[in-house]
Amino acid sequence: MLDLKFIKENPELVRQGVKNKNVNADIPTLLLLDEKRRELLQQAEALKCERNKANEEISALKKAGQPAVAVIESMKTTSQKICLLDAEVGEIDSKLHLILLSIPNIPHDSVPAGDAKSNQIVKGWGQPRQFPFKPKDHIELGEALGYFSGQQASKISGSGFTLFKGPGARLERALINFMLDVHTQRHGYTEIFPPFLVNRASMIGTGQLPKLEEDMYRLKDEDLFLIPTAEVPVTNIHRDEVLEEEALPVKYAAYTACFRREAGSYGKDTKGLTRVHQFDKVELVKLAHPENSFAELETLRDNAEEILRLLEIPYRVVLLASGDLSFSAAKCYDLEVWAPGSGKWLEVSSCSNFTDFQARRANLKYRSRKTGKPAYVHTLNASGVALPRTVIALLENFQQADGTVLFPRALEPYLRPAG
């Protein structure tokens, strides 16, 4: 969340930032509530001073052997007023907290203003392959080769799920192992295998709740959620902790399944692997020093890009405009791969810097060497990368005229049959 002090000192900057994200946030009410809270605290403080003086007076009267009944009754009345004021302050605190949770992170200065039409392509890599035949899409290829079945998955779970089998299941496993090996062995990330269920505090910490609760799968009898991304459990590993500055940046890589209801997406890319309720992903998370978090974002992005370069998939890097940013992000690059059979660019990674927005919600700090005091870290993450659309790109880019697929050299060791 944003710092209340920062909002009070920069109300117009915050209003404009929120507006640029196309989010409605009640900044005026927040400021009015804060002003009211300060007035109540001043009243309570004045009454506490009166109560302290009354205590001293009562003590003096008792020592002098004089009656103190009137002063005691007056002090009781003062104490009751203090209790009422404290209760009112508590109610305002709750309201302030809810409003603060509803205010998005504001875009960084380097982010273009506007909606998705204002997104900027900042880089391209690789040349789309020219086929001597009409390329098939991944659905036709995958089902003909026995890689996956949407029909069988639908029978088991319902629409929006995929059953990988045989070579498709091996491909999923190969990609997961390949990505984890690259990120841990080349890029220096520590591998994590986190729980796939998280509590409400974890979801609030990374910003999925309360705003996106309708998109999440929640257990009926417990306040636990299936994770939408490994970002949630991995970022929360150090929730309510103070790290030493020397430990920064902390770099984690994690494979998990991801679960999303995709509420509101009815009719959009419902066939194949483009938009599904459960999918595999390797996630990268960084906890960085505030002074160099944007440099760390560029490195993080390149780490994700290297997966696509090694897989020899043409891709482009898109800097998102303010209105296309997620609720928590201050800056984000999308990595989009070319899918020739589908004729589309498909997003396989979002590389984001959340500055201290998530850290404030999760109470995630480091101890400054200069001051010795705790300060909030900056959190970053990127898909490194998501599998469904990567599989689409692999099948469609490496298909042959006879309908088979020859995968890139980087995957050969991982696709080799055991033994």
Strand runs, count: 15
H-E order:
HHHHEHEHEHEEHEHEEEHEEEHEEEHH
Residues in helix, % = 40-55%
What count of domains describes the coordinates? 2
Overall SS class: alpha+beta
CATH architecture of the largest domain: 2-Layer Sandwich
Residue ranges: pLDDT <50 for 5 or more in a row? none
Describe this structure in words.
This protein is an alpha+beta fold. It has 13 helices and 15 strands. The strands form four sheets. It has an eight-stranded mixed beta sheet with strand order 1-10-11-12-15-9-8-4. A hairpin with a 4-residue loop joins strand 11 (331-339) and strand 12. Helix 5 (138-144) crosses helix 12 (387-397). The protein is elongated. 36% of the residues are buried. The mean pLDDT is 95.
Which characteristics define this entry?
single chain, 419 residues, alpha+beta, Helix Hairpins, BirA Bifunctional Protein, domain 2, 2 domains, eight-stranded mixed sheet, three-stranded mixed sheet, 15 strands, 41% helix, elongated
Layout of helices and strands:
Elements: H1 4-9, H2 11-20, H3 27-63, H4 69-102, E1 120-125, H5 138-144, E2 148-149, H6 150-156, E3 163-164, H7 167-186, E4 190-192, E5 197-199, H8 200-206, E6 224-226, H9 231-235, E7 242-244, E8 250-259, E9 278-288, H10 293-310, E10 315-319, E11 331-339, E12 344-353, H11 357-362, E13 365-367, E14 374-376, E15 378-386, H12 387-397, H13 412-415
Parallel strand pairs: 4-8, 7-13
Antiparallel strand pairs: 1-10, 2-3, 5-6, 8-9, 9-15, 10-11, 11-12, 12-15, 13-14
